[in-house]
Amino acid sequence: MNPRTIKALLKKDIALFTGNRFYLLITVLGLIFYIAIYLILPSKVDEKLSLGMYAPVVPPAFEQLTAQGAEIEFFETEAALKQAVLDGGHQVGVSLPADIMEVWNAGGKPGITVYYSATAPPETAEAIVTLIKELSYIQTGQALQFDTTEEILGPDLLGAQIALRDRMRPMLAVLILLTEVMTLAALIAVEIEQGTARALLVTPMRTSDLFAAKGILGVGLALGQAVIFMGLVGGFSHQPLLILATLIIASIFVVGAGFLLASLARDTNAVTGWGIMVLILLAVPGFGAVVPGLLADWAKVIPSYYLIDTVNRVVNYGAGWSDTAGNLLVMSGISAVLLGAGLLVLRRRFQ
């Protein structure tokens, strides 16, 4: 590869990028928009307890909760209660046995099941047990014994509660990166439509020089914006080198996806249409970071899952290199395959 040729091509590509008002606008405004979203979102965890309950027979003392203005919702089945907690409708669900009063009156210990949401505050378990003890005392005038079975629905994040805007941070960073898939693909599509690429290949310039220039531009656009965003929202506060390495791998993924999209789309309109669909699909794993337990294991087939999961675990939960090595390996492999496929298909289209 010829460094001078690549430098000249980069200048041409940058001029082409800045001359395209649409993609220049969405690049600049998109970065500002995502930073604004992060700053607007709540920075504190909502510690207000939301309680669901399944009780075939509701003890009178428990009915006093609603009379005192407590946020409690009764469900007709235990399955409906579990689903409500799993979906995030309630932080805690309490399931009372049908014979709770008979067991108490006989001096026994009824079994009470407590379901916790993955996002429930760490002090919730102790608060619920204390609440049940107080209600049982109100009911009978004495401290009664009971056995509790606790179950975390979704990934167990108890003790590691994250504010909404920090849970959104990995998704916003990925959206910034993925937007550049369309930008790079559109720039290449324009050159294909106008015949610029073929005209350049008639000169002594090598195809590798052309692809190297496009790749450097793509990595620069994607990585530059992601670094600015993560820097402004505190994304480098923990393991900055690990986050930077993750973003570099993601930028290579962006270049490969951009090459592949440009080679398959007929024109810039097709690039935009297909690019939006790809963007939506790759953004899906981000919802798993925002609402833990929302997505099933099938989300792991989406390549961006490993990027989002890595950023989320490092930035929000203090993970290190050893914790995320598997994700980085998978993401590196996917990026390499995607880049290779993009180069192969794009080379054939130029020829």
Describe this structure in words.
The protein starts with a helix and ends with a helix. It has a five-stranded mixed sheet, with helices on both faces. 66% of the residues lie in helices and 7% in strands. It contains 14 helices and five strands. The chain folds into two domains: 3-42 and 163-350, no CATH class; 51-153, abc type-2 transporter like fold (3-Layer(aba) Sandwich), CATH 3.40.1710. The chain has helices at residues 3-19, 21-40, 60-67, 78-86, 100-105, 124-140, 164-194, 196-202, 207-232, 240-264, 268-283, 286-290, 304-317, 321-350; strands at 51-54, 72-75, 92-95, 111-117, 147-153. Strand 4, helix 6 and strand 5 (147-153) form a beta-alpha-beta unit.
Topology of helices and strands:
Blueprint (H helix, E strand, L loop, with lengths): L2 H17 L1 H20 L10 E4 L5 H8 L4 E4 L2 H9 L5 E4 L4 H6 L5 E7 L6 H17 L6 E7 L10 H31 L1 H7 L4 H26 L7 H25 L3 H16 L2 H5 L13 H14 L3 H30 L1
Parallel strand pairs: 1-2, 1-3, 4-5
Antiparallel strand pairs: 3-4
GO cellular component, one term: plasma membrane
Keywords: Cell membrane, Membrane, Transmembrane, Transmembrane helix
Subcellular location: Cell membrane
